[in-house]
Specification:
alpha+beta, five-stranded antiparallel sheet, two-stranded antiparallel ribbon, 14 helices, 9 strands, 17% strand
Length: 333
């Protein structure tokens, strides 16, 4: 049974009021405040009784001796699934996104970096992204080329849906011209810049794959990350991270990135995904919500979204994340 079906109409309305109040104020919501702000047509005493029932059912709790209540993860889940009304991005927000992302001939990495950054600014959360992965591309055939008596070259022929046959030779020429003679470390650090202004319409998609996977292709140590993050300062300014302990936890997540990579990689096939608090498989993410949307480039899939505390304006953020993923998708076509 869906969680919302466990609640009466009055309980749903009171729950909505508590969630919205807490999202806006970061303070526990009291019955007097709810009665004054939302005009539910019942007395503060009735609201207080309803809030007590919601607490008994696991949708609210009250911290310490406060008379106000705070939503639980279950409350946010009901709010997202059954109560909230999506708010599309404003015209100003859409303009900001288009202006930040529509940079001519940008590589995948640069598009995702900009997308994560601007999403973080617009939502006041941490923007996150993962580039398309080649492991979902269909292998058509393998070729072995003997380079010398001791060396073999393994060639993968992939069916990605992105590359015209005539583009392959052009891309190989571009890569040799721009990369030969440089160390792998330099190539990883400057790949996007070196390939930004080259290539035409036919070979841009293949060049973008090289740029997106450059850290792995040109890193023989196989130290992979693949996660693009916006500025963590957006989260650091929120009251949930006022304590030193919470800030250290946030820094561990953003600096290590392995946990975020694992969480985001699993979302490539999901479309829109909202994972709230304890719904995250790893307990280290139990204080966070991840809102992501997958995007496609040919047969390749990536992920764009935000991470923040469970107290977030879901109605606005979901619309921004979906809109951004469609813009990214359009730029990669």
């Amino acid at each position: 049974m869906p969680l919302s079906e466990q609640l009466s109409e009055r309980e749903l309305r009171v729950l909505e009021a508590v969630v919205q109040t807490y999202i806006e104020t970061a303070e526990p919501a009291g019955s007097q405040t709810i009665a004054r702000r939302f005009g539910l047509g019942v007395s503060p005493a009735t609201i207080r009784n309803t809030m007590s029932e919601l607490e008994d059912k696991g949708f609210l709790f009250h911290p310490h001796t406060s008379a106000g209540r705070i939503p639980t993860d279950r409350a946010y889940r009901v709010y997202v699934d059954a109560i909230m009304r999506l708010s599309p991005p404003s015209h100003e927000q859409q303009h900001t996104l288009r202006a930040e992302l529509a940079v001519p001939r940008s590589a995948v990495e640069e598009i995702l970096r900009r997308a994560a950054q601007v999403l973080g600014v617009l939502t006041q959360e941490l923007g996150v992204a993962v580039a398309p992965a080649l492991d979902q591309v269909v292998l058509e055939r393998l070729e072995l080329v003997q380079v010398s008596s001791e060396r073999l070259l393994l060639v993968f022929n992939l069916r990605s849906g992105l590359v015209a046959p005539s583009a392959v030779q052009q891309v190989a020429q571009i890569l040799n011209q721009r990369l030969a003679g440089h160390t792998l470390k330099d190539i990883r650090a400057t790949l996007s810049e070196r390939l930004r202004d080259c290539g035409g319409q036919d070979d841009r998609e293949l060049l973008n794959i090289f740029i997106a996977e450059g850290d792995g292709l040109f890193d023989l140590s196989h130290d992979e990350s693949g996660v693009v993050l916006g500025s963590a300062q957006m989260l650091a300014d929120q009251p949930e991270f006022a304590s030193n302990a919470r800030m250290r936890e946030l820094l561990r997540l953003t600096e290590g990135r392995d946990l975020l990579k694992q969480a985001l990689e699993s979302r490539r096939q999901r479309g829109l995904s909202v994972t709230i608090g304890a719904e995250n498989p790893d307990a280290r993410l139990s204080d966070f919500t991840l809102v992501t949307s997958s995007y496609e480039a040919g047969s390749l899939k990536g992920v764009i979204g935000v991470m923040g505390p469970t107290r977030m304006p879901y109605d606005k953020i979901i619309g921004l994340v979906e809109h951004t993923s469609r813009l990214v998708e359009g730029l990669l076509e």
